[in-house]
Amino acid sequence: MFESAELGHRLSKDVYAEIEPKLRTDLLDAQFSLLDNKYFATVILINGIDGAGRGETVNLLNEWMDPRHIEVHAFDQPTDEELERPFLWRFWRALPPKGKIGILFGNWYSDSIGDRAFGRIKKAHLDQRLSDLNRFEAMLTAEGVLLVKFWFHLSRPAQKKRLKALEANPDTRWRVREADWHYYDEYDRYREVAEHVLRRTSTGIAPWVIVDGTDPQYRAVHVGRTLLDRLQRRIEFVRKGFRPRQTAAPLTAAPDERNLLNALILDQPMDKKEYDAQLEKLQGRLALALRDEAFKKRSLVLVFEGMDAAGKGGAIRRVTEALDARQYSLVPIAAPTDEEAAQPYLWRFWRRLPRRGKVTIFDRSWYGRVLVERVEGFCSEADWMRAYTEINDFEDQLVSAGAIVVKLWLSVSSEEQLRRFKAREEASFKRYKITSDDWRNREKWPLYEPAVCDMIDRTSTENAGWTLVEADNKYYARVKILRVLVDKIETALKK
Question: Is the overall model pTM greater than 0.85, yes or no?
Answer without folding.
Answer: yes
